[in-house]
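Incident review: delayed structure delivery

Summary: a single-chain prediction request sat in the queue longer than the usual turnaround. Root cause was a stuck worker, restarted by the on-call engineer. No data loss occurred. The affected request and its eventual output are reproduced below so the record is complete for anyone auditing the incident later.

Affected input:
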Amino acid sequence: MKILVVDDERPARERMVETLGRICPECKVVAFDNAQDALNYEGKSDIEIAFLDIELGNYSGIELAIELKKYSPRCNIIFVTSFSEYGTESFKARPSGYVTKPYTDEEIKRELDNLRYQISESLESSEVSGKSGGSGGNEETTLEKDERRLRCATFGNFIAYKENGDIMTFSRTKSKELLAYLIDCAGFPVTTRDIAKDVFEAELDKQMSKNISKIIIGLISDLKDEGYDDIVIKQNRQIYVNRDKIDCDIYNAINGDVSALNSFHGEYMIEYSWAEISGSVAKIRKI
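Output delivered after worker restart:
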């Protein structure tokens, strides 16, 4: 199954992608933070299920659902919202279901098990193909592991190392920060709007979009020069890291590595203001 997720709030979007990755690991998940990018997605006619936040700024999730139906008439629309007053209005889009935040895994699975339009393969009978919606947004590309991984340190200052152990340098300061930010996102896809808001603390406009594009290109080029051409993945106007290709203290600590946990003394990428509210650090403190 191909599933679309559209939510303009990054934490909510990431949570839904992660939830679907647990419940339906064989599904292909594509996530966007706005309606226009979703409608511009080339594969929209193949979408079989769409989890849409109703509140999407100027373009509501209901309007998006109606437009999506023009490209994929049998798409199962499932609205996700914090509000209940949209019930009657949402019927215009002929939704398959309705989920109110905060939701549970069981509620999402119940919606997937009771779709308006049946999918050719059921959740119970599909074989797991190794593509998980929680590992990186659009899962149309299978990311295979190998032994060579980029080694990074995040406790204290952020440092990326070359294969020979030397500290890696970057053509742009912001390219290094972007890599740190993507590592903090732990494989979840982000958009240029997310980067503008979190890394630059600015609104996305035409000039900012151009600047971010240059930084992304610079980062990918810097990594490729060091032999890492599959660390940063850019697809469908989203960008994320292949977490399986990165060896860093934050990931090891979250996975329960004792030595990594012991090396954490409360400081995490201290040169970046966005790291102060990192969800990754919050996970460590709960261990």
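Verification: Residues 58 and 169 are 41 Å apart (CA to CA).
Action items: add queue-age alerting; document worker restart procedure.
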